[in-house]
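Allow me, if you will, to draw on your knowledge of protein folds for a short while. I have a record of one protein: its chain in single-letter code and its fold written as discrete structure tokens. I remain grateful for any guidance, and I place the record below:
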Amino acid sequence: MNFPRVVTAALCLPLAACGGGVVPKGSYAPPPAGPPASAFMKQGPLMGSDAGALTRMFGQPRLDIRETTVRKLQFANGRCILDAYLYAPARGKEPVVTHVDARSPAGADVDPVSCATALQAK
């Protein structure tokens, strides 16, 4: 028995279990086309608003965080905190609200519409 062959075989056995199966050509079918991602976007009074509209509604944001593809505006008044996430619908277009989170100062989830109403009442 040749020692290097035994060692090589022993070291290769665990790697054999990692190998994936071969997918025969023509057996892959793409998933069926579903509704566009925008169909899953929650509807609400703030959706589609730009930063200017939010500022007119709630005043100056407490936070204005800008990253490469998203802008987050945070508004708060002691009763609730509202985070609005704005994304550009297309290159070169003004970012608009596509998602909103709301919570109490203690961190409990709050209805975003109720929070928006509370923020406007000041």
User: Anything to note?
Assistant: Strands lie at 63-66, 71-76, 81-87, 96-103. Residues 86 and 97 are 4 Å apart (CA to CA).
